[in-house]
Each structure stands twice: as C-alpha cells, then as structure tokens.
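Handout, page 2. Input:
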Amino acid sequence: MGRGGEWVRRPWNRVISGEIYRAALLPAAAGVHSSRMPRPDLLETFPNPYPDREYLIAMECPEFTSLCPLGGIETDAAELKQLEGGAPDFATMHIRYVPAATCVELKSLKLYLWSFRNDGIFYERAVNRILDDLTAVVKPAWMEVVGDFNIRGGIKSVITAQIGRRTG
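Output:
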C-alpha cells in the first residue's frame, strides 16, 4: 500500500476477465520481490464427492512462472535489475493426487500458482513448496508435483517431489 494506504497498480499487473489479479498488487513502497509470495492462503478446497473410492486427479498447469533468485545473466543483468530476482523462469507444473476428504478448487490453485510470479525461488524449492502447501490444505492420501522447467543455459530441469503412498 502507498503511504495513504492505497494500492498501486504496477505495469506488470494483468487485467484478466475485467479483474486485476489482486495477488500481483504490491504495496507502493515494496519492490517486485515480496516476502508475501507465494500465497498458500489463496488455496481453497471442497469435499471429495467420492471419499470411499481411490481415484487419481491429474492437473497440468503450463503457465507457471517465477523469477531466478540469482539475478540475470550477464548480457541482460542491467535490464533485469528492476525485477530484483532475475530473469523469469517458465515451467509446466504437473500435479497428481489421490484425494482423501477434500479436493483442491481449481481457480484457487491457479491464483496460488500465479502468486509465484514475483518470487525469486530455485526450481527445487518451488516444487517442494507447492507440494508442502497443497498437502497442508488438501491432506491427500498421495500427491506428486512435477516441475518441468524450460531450458535455461542449455540445461533442462525436471523436479519431482511426492508424499504418501499410492496403493493403486
């Protein structure tokens, strides 16, 4: 918020379906990188409609973005200074789980994943943080998160983390 408590619209905020993505609104005094990101408080659940049946829910989220925590690469470091987290990283997140009592609501998952956009975070930490945040809210019987990151510096990274045991 600004000095008077007003929210400042930053140029990277997108208007989506006529609404400004609220998690991208930052206080005027804050930089792009904010310790309030990611935002697990955005995650919502609903009761599993078939709690007595083991079944798999698989989601593909091809628009995951975060920032490299180490800054830019040599040729663009000056231009990326204002990002204060470095060059953007892009990934497809694959989330698969066997629900127990609850399921994750998809719009809330989308907003949660968007909350990583301004966060400087390593790939490994992002994937494990997503797994930790989702399991804390959904409490699945089994869950796996796979971060399939775009090539950076000639290296392709795929990070997989899981909890629980699948019986089927």
